[in-house]
Amino acid sequence: MKYAAQYEPGTRLLAGLVYACSAVCCASLFYVATHYPEFQIAFYSGWLLSAVLTTLSFASLSWLFAVARFSPGYLVGFYLYIMILGYLWLNAFAPLQYDHVLSGISAAVSAVAFLLPALLIRSRLSQVYVLSIRSVDRLLITIFITAVATIAAGAKYNFKLVGLGDIYQFRGELDFPTGLNYAIGIVSSALLPLAYACFALRSQFWRAGVVILLMLLFYPITLSKMSLFAPLWLVSLTIASRMFGGRVTVVLSVLVPVALGVVLLSLHDRGLLVSGVSPAYFGLVNFRMTAIPSLAMEYYSHFFATHQLTHFCQVRLLGPLVGCPYNEPLAAIMSKYYDAGGLFNASLFATEGIASVGPVYAPLTAFACGLVFAIVNRMSTGLPERFILLSGGVLAQAFLNIPFTTTLLSQGAAFTFLLWYVMPRDMFKLDHKNDPLER
Fold first, then answer.
1. How far apart are CA 299 and CA 289, in angstroms?
2. Contacts of 121 (CB under 8 A, 6+ apart)
3. Contact, 350 vs 392, CB < 8 A?
4. 327 vs 258, higher pLDDT
5. Rg of the chain over all Cα atoms, to the nearest angstrom
6. Does residue 134 contact residue 81 with C-beta atoms inside 8 Å?
7. How far apart are CA 69 and CA 247, in angstroms?
8. Measured distance CA(63)–CA(432) in Å, rounded
9. Does residue 193 contact residue 392 with C-beta atoms inside 8 Å?
10. Is the pLDDT score of 238 beyond 80?
């Protein structure tokens, strides 16, 4: 059974890109500490050596991304790797009092436990059932109709065109029925991106454009940054993957935006750029989109060092069975406790790991989630890597910011995985410009 690629020409280049991305993200967190101290993010020069040695040791995992072929586990795993790297950097300087050594070791081991199965297991799983191309076309029509109906229903409850700085003033007032909440998450995060990938890779660009427009319409309904930037994100992935292939695109999707934020803010701090664009860009990309997922692990580690664990009671089906010590969702509790502004969701490492079982057993839940992605890898083998990248690009961001079980169900990841399994492998007429580092 073949689990991973062998060393090939270009492997060192890809590993170098991952190392560069790791270094840039740590530099970004230095600026985050100096510009956002109110979020209890610190930097002490005396602890710099310890932070550098810790993150360098963890960055040795770069070789995994250099030798593993592209897969859903690769797509999600790289973003989670960057998140854990960021947490280890923050953990070295954090002013919050808890067992930093135990939590740091737990985070690193959890990352390894997730990445090994998620990156290296990808042998093909036989398809018991395969959709016909005509059935796929009917599915795409159904997705379009469902999206229009969901947007119309959501607009009856909320439709406000507000700036990014004002969304938190209104988002707490949103109150959708449970069924509509599920529909919004599944349609916007899973079904529309899958439809976009089908149209884009079959060169049906006007239909892909219609999908992008539908995705944009979810922003005034949900007042979510993900809804606003998901269309731009997918278009950027489409262009980059055409030129660089899947693996390099995933790395560059973090490296380029974060590096740009560091450059812009450093120029602004030196008085070379005087407009407010640089701090605004840094705040959105480097802080909100990159640092916040790592900071969530910091908050969860501190909170659950002195509070009861959830034992997975945050999962709606398990709550009545195990009992829950909390009357509110964890995202709301964290937001109030740390005055974070807006709901403070967190990834599988924080929610299914730290909050549910504590730092000692967190690697076990990470390994279980990695095994799920190993199965997903096998279900999707044979599909074009660009199709997986585009149809799963929004969900990858969801896994970075939302609990694993919530992303599977409420965000529709389970639907995407099932559709990957039944998709006809010969549906796309591509130029087969694959990852140049895999040739």
1. 16
2. 3, 73, 374, 377, 378
3. no
4. 258
5. 21
6. no
7. 8
8. 25
9. yes
10. yes
The residue with greater pLDDT, 329 or 202, is 202
> Residue 347 has which token pair?
């990834």
Could you identify the residue written with the tokens 């055409």?
Answer: 242
Which runs of E-coded beta strand occur in 259-335?
Answer: none
Structure tokens given for 44: 């002490």
What the block records as the tokens of 17 is 């890109």
**Sign of the torsion formed by the C-alpha atoms of 59, 64, 299 and 286:** positive
Q: Are the beta carbons of 236 and 263 closer than 8 angstroms? A: no
pLDDT tens for residues 391-418?
999 999 999 999 999 999 999 999 999 9
Q: Tell which phi-psi region holds residue 185, choosing left (phi > 0), alpha (psi between -120 and 50) or beta.
A: alpha
Residues 370 and 111: their CA atoms lie apart, in Å, by 9
CB–CB of 234/374 below 8 Å? no
What's the distance, CA 111 to chain centroid? 14
128 touches 172 (CB < 8 A): no
Distances (CA, A) of 381 to 246, 370, 422: 14, 16, 11
Q: Is the pTM higher than 0.90?
A: yes
Nearest by Cα to 413 from 76, 77, 186: 186
Sign of the CA dihedral running 293, 295, 301, 304: negative
- Spell out the residues 6+ positions from residue 70 whose beta carbon is closer than 8 angstroms to its own: 245, 246, 247, 250, 385, 388, 389, 435, 438
pLDDT at 326 over 90: no
Distance of CA 8 to the CA centre of its chain: 28
Q: Environment class of residue 426 by beta-carbon count within 10 Å: exposed (0-12), middle (13-18) or buried (19+)?
A: exposed
What is the rounded distance in angstroms from the CA atom of residue 302 to the CA atom of residue 97? 7
| b/e map 228-253, b = 16+ CB within 10 Å | bbbbebbbbbbebbeebbbbbbbbbb
Distance from C-alpha of 120 to C-alpha of 374, rounded to nearest angstrom: 8
Cβ–Cβ < 8 Å for 157, 140 = no
CA 104 – CA 134 distance, rounded (Å): 51
